[in-house]
Every structure is written in structure tokens, then in C-alpha cells.
Amino acid sequence: MKRNAMVDVMVKKAAREVIKNPDKALPRGLKLVESLDRKKVNARTYEALHTVLDDPDNNWNIFLHNIFSNVAPESLEKLSVSLVLNAAMESYNKRMENVKKYDCNIPWAILMDPTAACNLKCTGCWAAEYGKNASLPYDVMEKVIREGTELGVYTYIFSGGEPLVRKEELIQLCDSHPECIFLAFTNGTLVDEAFAKELRRVGNFGLAFSIEGFEEETDMRRGAGTYQAVIRAMDLLKAEGVAFGFSTCYHSKNVDCVGSDAYVDFMIEKGCLFGWYFTYIPVGVDAVPELIATAEQREFMYHQMRKWRQTKPAFLLDFWNDGEYTLGCIAGGRNYFHINAAGECEPCAFIHYANVNIKDCSLLEALQSPLFMEYHRGQPFNQNHLRPCPLLDNPHCLREMVERSGAHSTEMLSPEPVEQLTSKTQAASEAWGPVADRIWEDPNEPKYASRSRLYHQKADGSPMEDSPEDTAAAPEDTDISAN
User: Fold this and answer.
1) Which listed residue, 17, 97, 268, 365, has the most CB atoms within 10 A of its CB?
2) Domain that residue 448 falls in
3) How far apart are CA 410 and CA 402, in angstroms?
4) Is residue 340 part of a domain?
């Protein structure tokens, strides 16, 4: 059923009131959004938000005020519909209806590579394995968005290569689909003043800057001058009131830096509203397995992320260590999937295997392809959601799925057999397993009670001891990113 147009008008009006007076209007705006969410999709988030709005010193309260202080008013109005109403509420209801109807995963977001071309050559980057000449035609990207919105997908993310090589066409897509929210992972080197102004104008397109620490750490993998280019780009977007954040790959050589309070504080000072952490995955023939974070480093990042979410005014995520919030792996279309620049439909940006090409099939057919259905049937790949990944944490799962599905390698320059890929993560999986199990089964961990209620068993299948039913005092219960 199509939403009444008056709902959009009401929400935009509420956004304007919040912009004028956040302290007074934020609680009213929250109640309006909550009343519109008839199926209570985000009930736990609303509960947490009511709590933080009562505390002016709460880091999430400060975060919300930063949004309304730093993002351009016209962008906030547009985001109130594309992000809040569509991506955060309507998407879930439509997707769950279609999951039931088609018996396959329907994602919250689709990641597309407009091009494999890039003006950098970062050490260990998998994007170079695709070849630099591949490019998704504009009409194919348009088709993906059109078919995606019909299924309930309102979030589209661009990667590459360097997606801003085609920034004019990406702006055109954003203009054509104001109902959707767009994000691009970028090295920042192609952001100029004119593009920053265009981002402000369209209002539904943000950037995640790839940065791996301060100048020394970033330029180590990305090349001299890259760090300063990112900082300049951040300054341009902050001046225009464009929403942006940072994307950081942590590995064995930079954990101390990117896992420090000083680093996160600096990113927030530069204007970042969010920060997404990825751990290094050794994909491709040029991969450097020695860069995989050790089990000790990964545990350090686990604890740092949970500390930051109680203290830092930013939306911070760690895609591998936050599996307990998503009930395991999010790939294979469960929450997202990847279309590379050649059109190959991959379950994950780090899993370069496919059965179909989006140029030759519909979006729904891609989601029902053999490898995606293996994901659909197999998720979660481990009852311990701190071990969510079928490559890094459960490599035998990926080997079996690729073999059963008959998927082919999508790396055009040097196809990589799945046995070769998973052999590079086997040792890391074996090292992390006992550490993850210790954390998962620790009754002193804030999320232990909810873990116990979900599964009532340990990772090996044996029963867990009874745990306290009341988790209201758990520190992360007021963490809106955890709900």
C-alpha cells in the first residue's frame, strides 16, 4: 500500500521544527515517528532514544544535536523521508513481505561498483583484481534501484574502484531517486568545492572517507598525500553541511592508532557523524595475509567499540565484531550484497564468487541464484555471532557453499579458487575461535543475558547456564546503534 503523501509533509515539518529548536522539538519529533511506525519495527531504538533525550550529557544526545547543528537544513528535510521513513521503517515491512513471498533474502542495502577504475593503488586492495576497464552502465544501476525499491530496498552504496570517477552520473541517480538514501566509499581525492555543493543540493547522498589512521598509517597503504586529500575533502563537506563519516580498515600494523581515543576524537572533530570499521580480509593474489589482525588485536577492537558507543558522539560500527547485533552474517542479501563493476552479483564485497550477472537477470533472480540461496539457508554460520563470517571465521562454510552452488570466481585478472582464498584465513579463524567463545560465554559481558535468551547454548551446542532475565542495567541498552 502506498504511503499517504501527508505523512511525508508531516515528517518534513517536524524536521524543520527540530532544526529550529532541537531541545524542545526532538522529543515531539520522536513521538511522531514512533506513532507512524505501526508495526514497531524500531521499538527498542525508540525506547533507548527516549532515555538519552532526558540526559543532555549523554553521548547519543550530543550526537543527535550534532546532526541538527552540522547538516544543512534542506538535507535534513530530505533525509527525514528517505532515511527515517523509507530506509528505517518502510523498508523492513516491504522486505519481510517479499522474503515470505519469494523465499529468499531481500537486503536492506545494495552495494554497487560504478567502476573498477581507481586513481590509487593501495597495498593489499582487492579492487585491483577486477581490472580497471570494467564499468556498470548507467541504465543497469538505474534498473537495480528501480527494481530494488519495488522490493523494499531504499539504501544504495557505491564502492569501487573509486566511485567518484563517475560522480556526475551518481548525482544524477540521486536526483532521480529522492525516495532513496545514497552513500559512497571514497578515497576523497576527487572531492572538490563544486562537488561538495552538489552533495548539499541533492541532500540524499553522503560520503564515507577511507582513512586508516593519521598521516603515516594512511599513506603507508594508500600512497603519499592521500591523508591530506581526505582531510581537505572533509573540510569542504563540513563547510557545506553535508553528512559524512569515515571508513577504516584495521589490520595488524595500524590497530594501536585506529583503535585509539585520539583517532576517533579527531575524526569527530573533523565533522564525521559515523565511523565504519572493517578488518583486513586477504582477498586476491596481491593480498597480504600478514596484515590480518591477530586475535588479541580483534578482541581489543571489540572492547574499544563498546566503550566508544558509551562515550563518543558518533555512530560507530565494526562489521565483524558486531555480529551479535545482526544475528550473524549480513551478506548474501540478508542485509546487503555486492554488484561489481562487471555486473557480477556477489554475496559480499569480500566474497568474489557469483552465479549470475545483473546485466542478464532481474534483481530478484540474482537474490534467488544458487550461491545466494546457500547463504539464505546457511545463515547464521555460527551460533556464536562473534564468529559471523563464512570466510574469516568459518572458512569451511564458504568452501562448501561455493562448491555446492557451482559459483565461479569473479576476479577477472587472476581468478582465485575458493580453496586458495580460505587457506589464507584458516589460521586466523582457529586463533579467534577460542577468544570469541570466551567472550560469548562470559556472564560479565553486557550482552550475555540476551545471548542466553536467544540460544540457551554455547557455540559448541551445549546448554548455557541460566542468566539474569533483567538486562535493563546493561550499559549498552542505551546505545541506539545496538538496537
Assistant:
1) 268
2) 443-452+460-483
3) 12
4) yes
